[in-house]
Write a structure and sequence with these properties.
Length: about 200
């Protein structure tokens, strides 16, 4: 390898390290140098930001609140609503069950069509029918608590904002294909039927 080749092999990784590290150096120790290097790198479209690694980070905790409505006019909160008391901590993310993952995706994009939500709510109709009482409909609400910015938390603010509850959708348990799903479940799983 020629001297020029050896020099290139040494300079390219060094330049890459400078491009990554230098813009993040603290200004109180390095003055304007980090800012100047960052501006220079923009000319060749090199930009290191957190957004490269987390382009759409979660900004709030979201849980679903389900209410079943029955023919006699009564209402009942369903097991998903238990998360209103327990899902606001940090360890929940490390102890997810399969149903927690389903709930997460069913709760996604409340303003748009979401097939995961449709099928999840149909499955809830089947689950509730096993008790012998088929809900007429299930109302789904989304409860959101925004993450407080780190600076505000450092100044003593609460980790999470106030709970915001909004209507997402209403699922009807006696329409197709949900009615067929309930009938097929009763035939396939008679031991799970309580009613």
């Amino acid at each position: 390898m020629t001297l020029l080749g050896k020099l290139a092999h040494a300079l390219v990784p060094t330049a890459m390290c400078v491009a990554i590290v230098a813009p993040a150096l603290p200004r109180e120790h390095f003055g304007e140098v980090p800012g100047e290097i960052a501006r220079a790198l923009l000319y060749i479209s090199i930009k290191q930001t957190w957004g490269m690694y987390a382009p759409d980070p979660q900004r709030a905790h979201l849980v679903m609140d389900l209410v079943a409505h029955y023919d006699d006019g009564t209402e009942a909160t369903l097991e998903e609503s238990d998360d209103l008391q327990t899902a606001w901590g940090t360890t929940w993310a490390w102890h997810k069950r399969r149903v927690d993952i389903w709930r997460y995706y069913a709760n996604f994009n409340p303003d748009k069509r979401n097939d995961n939500r449709t099928w999840y709510l149909r499955a809830v109709c089947v689950r509730e029918a096993r008790s012998g009482r088929v809900p007429k409909k299930i109302t789904m609400y989304q409860v959101k608590r925004r993450f407080t910015p780190p600076g505000a938390v450092a100044r003593g603010a609460a980790d999470l904002g106030e709970a915001e509850r909004r209507l997402v959708t209403v699922a009807y348990c006696r329409t197709e294909p949900t009615r067929d799903m309930i009938a097929e479940d009763a035939l396939a799983n008679p031991e799970l039927q309580r009613g």
